[in-house]
Amino acid sequence: MGKGIVRITQQIEYWAAANPLVYQLAALYYKDIIRREITLAQIGPSDHVLCIGGGPCPFSAILLHQFTGAKVTVIDNDLRCIQPARELLARLGLINEIAVLYQDGCSIELTGYTVIHTAAQISPLDQILQQIRTSADPGTRVLIRTPKGRLQRFYCEGFWELDSSRCRAVAHKKTRNLDSTLLLIKEGAVLC
Question: The pTM is what?
Fold first, then answer.
């Protein structure tokens, strides 16, 4: 059942990547979320952001760059998403500003990034968090999107295993499928 949300989201992103009007409409959903996340993590132009899970239309990466001027790298472990994402960035004139790589979040080297941003659809979350714990630089800010409680079963497992009581967070509008975005800071081998 969890794959259903991923498939629906991906289909919308394929349409948005191919059609400027659909892109503009779908981007409206993300703008407020991204602004809140930027404030939460205090992202600025000197940051290098890694977005884990970009899909065929990496809205979050695009808006993070446009709103902050930060350098952004996007990874996705679905090879079919890479080319449409790169084509969209080229059409938007952002191909030199945002890199899109075919890479798995469970195995990527994470040094050099000041912020790591995770999509709600990434899987397996527990293995990606373990990679962040072992590979990210100390002080790295990690943003983790969490789905609303009633929708968690449609996403990957692992959200309920996070100790959100130790995190700063920003809540999202009730009309969203996202509940909040958590901010964790890498300290040693711990995310807190």
Answer: 0.88
